[in-house]
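debug: dumping io for the single-chain case to check the tokenizer round-trip. Nothing else runs in this session.
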Amino acid sequence: FKKQLTAEPLDIGLFTAGRGAKLLLAREGDEGICIGQIGEVHPAVLERFRLTHAVAVFEVDLEALGKKKI
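debug: decoded output
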């Protein structure tokens, strides 16, 4: 079976609005499971940690990648 990686918008406080996504992995034609997220860190979060440059976050759940149902 072919596997397909897609991204859907994710609106959480960590990310700048419109700059976050959840990553879904599925067999062709299936709904898929969330295996991670990616996004640009919100300026308020950067300020809280005294970061002066833009930061992007990428997270992948390796355990989810190993699930046999995908």
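debug: round-trip ok. Helices lie at 43-48, 62-65.
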